[in-house]
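pipeline: protein-struct stage 2 | run 1193 | Sugar ABC transporter substrate-binding protein
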Amino acid sequence: MNKAFGKKGLKLCTALMAVVLVFTGCGSKGNSDNSSKELSSIEGRYTIDPETPAWKLDKKEETTDLTWYVNADWWNTDFGKDLVTKKIKEDLNINIKFITGDDTKLNTIFAGGEMPDMLTIFDSNSPVVQKAATWALPLNDLADKYDPYFNKVAAKDTMNWFQLVDGKTYGYPNYSNTQNDFDSGNIPAKTAFVIRKDVYEAIGKPAIGTPEEFKSAMQQIKKQFPDMIPFGFNSIGTGTGSLGDALQDFIGVPMETENGEFYNRNLDEDYLTWLKTLNEVYRNGDISDDSFADDGTAFEEKLKSGKYATMMLDGTPQQSGNLQIFMTENPGKEYIAIDGPQSTAGHEPTLNQSGITGWMITYVTKKVKDPAKAIQIYTYLLSEEGQKLMNYGIEGETYKVNEAGKIEFLPEIKDLQLNNADKFKKDYRMGEFMFFGHDRDKALSNDAFADSIKQMQEWGKGKLKPHFILENINPAQGTPEARSLSAIDTNWNTTLVSMIRSKDDATFESTLAAYKAFLKDNNWDKIVEIRTEKMKNNKEKLGLK
């Protein structure tokens, strides 16, 4: 997500450059530390068994104290106070001291500060991640020596994806969705074109697939519901809201050219046709000027009050609470997903979800005091037992399994989740402590998502398509191409809004022409070359032709 650039942005940029300097400047020092440190012995503690998780075998009596740095100021540092982390502490006989910070603090750690036992980073393209072999231990080696059961619960595709040039994998993420996860049907869609049920019925449930149908529906809504905003979308801020990648996925814009090169989806004719349509809808008064200026809070307030008749909505789980509020207070008027805008070129939707890169990549550093216990944490949390604990708690205490085999929160826990979120979070922490979590585990329970988005998720079945080939393809940080891309992205964000708000066709076309000229003036051909090469590397990692 793009951030507004100011003093805060300058500070972040400076910190990232400093991280780059730390790694580029350490040269031979970093190279001399490439080999794994001598791994400590577990003789007398336990004998490894490929069929049994090591945490169940470990006889170590004293509690292991570990420090775990998470590069996010917002992370909850409590451990052992809530039901989830108390159970982790008990089962693994560990005590974790979480430390949090931002990129400035991360840079300080790598510039000579005290290295933690474990470390979690969010940016998979950062120099810290790319140089992991100089400061982290390979998970492959840790598993071989201490916990081979790890190989049963870690996804091979994810391990291969994060493999460095030395053939070893150092970090493992959460929410890493593999091809098998997509194929399983257990990952729900998070994007939908939604309309208020009462509005849809009042205008005769028309098809809204073609540009003409879309414009007609917006006019009908304006006529019959003059106090509503016919069409809305996620807060744009400094990005593109749900009118950029989300809309492109919704109408199935290709991800690559026919010969496998990077494709600028922003200039796809099908997509541009829909942007022209939105411009006409705007000129007809069916899109509010406020929608382009509203921040997330303003957007959510309008959503909760049902102000939008229709929306292109991305991140439905994140908006489920607001949708639920409107649904509960306005029975029969809830938002429902319909087919909405469709490709003018005959493409099917290719909705995106969290990809194989996932989020929150966690490493074991070379300074770890107990490497055996560290890899046990990975195995425990990745296992079915750990996933159920993090999502649903403990059977009999927080949930039961019904006759259909689905997990159900006990009535008092469900009531707490719905009516006292603060206490639920403090005392239980289910759904929040999610290291190595997976989207697929949400399918174990009907309580995993609010009722307000279940119909939307049902509509999205069969419409997801992995975007693996487009992951991590941007130029390396600190390069001229990276700086050019940043400028291009910023330019596109303003261009998109300007095109939709154009006063006439001529202004739309001149704005688009200015964007194309900006591409030529900012190393676009070189960026395409870099992205194409990285796409080819991604295909090789995934075994794709």
